Design the sequence.
């Protein structure tokens, strides 16, 4: 918008200031000329603009624009979590092996490390306690698939077992010697009284 103004010197005795503005307006604003007088000062033409009412056609265009809004893309965090849980479930039945981190045999933390490395190329510590320290706590009721669920199987209450949470209280884990990777329920009495909490790797 371009505007021009001039002013008389307001410090002159008896002087009155005037302001004349010529403005380039948008098509929907109709210019009209009126006369504005102040006191005994001679009237000068002043340029005013009258705004047209908001038309039904413009409102219709806005409605069409809203209807044509594209749907939001899927949450990338949810897609990554699904990758993790699907890979974890694909390993069900693989044998437990202390210190193992390959499909030939997993221990609990080795299983978690393998799944996250294969799906998201993340390198996690192969140790339950270090995994616990490297992840963020999740409040009860806010657990999500691909979170890590920790248990203490020892008297010192330190993290000693970990699995990958699937939702609805279920988790997949490399269980123990003589057993395989399987799905268990954290609400079962054995696991519930040993539960330390759920923690998050993904943002």
Sequence:
């Amino acid at each position: 918008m371009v505007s021009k103004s001039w002013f008389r010197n307001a410090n002159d005795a008896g002087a009155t200031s005037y302001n004349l503005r010529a403005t380039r307006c948008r098509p929907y604003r109709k210019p009209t000329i009126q006369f504005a007088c102040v006191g005994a000062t001679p009237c000068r033409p002043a340029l005013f603009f009258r705004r047209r009412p908001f038309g039904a056609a413009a409102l219709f265009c806005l409605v069409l624009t809203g209807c044509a809004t594209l749907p939001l893309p899927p949450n990338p965090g949810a897609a990554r979590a699904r990758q993790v849980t699907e890979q974890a479930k694909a390993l069900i039945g693989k044998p437990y092996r202390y210190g193992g981190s390959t499909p030939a045999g997993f221990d609990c933390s080795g299983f978690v490390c393998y799944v996250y490395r294969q799906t998201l190329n993340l390198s996690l510590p192969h140790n339950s306690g270090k995994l616990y320290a490297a992840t963020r706590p999740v409040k009860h009721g806010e657990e999500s698939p691909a979170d890590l669920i920790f248990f203490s199987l020892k008297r010192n209450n330190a993290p000693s077992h970990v699995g990958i949470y699937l939702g609805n209280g279920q988790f997949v884990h490399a269980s123990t010697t003589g057993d395989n990777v399987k799905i268990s329920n954290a609400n079962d009495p054995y696991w519930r009284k040993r539960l330390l909490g759920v923690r998050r790797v993904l943002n």
Residues 1-23, 35-50, 59-74 have pLDDT under 50 and may be disordered. The CA atoms of residues 35 and 44 lie 6 Å apart. The longest strand covers residues 29-36.
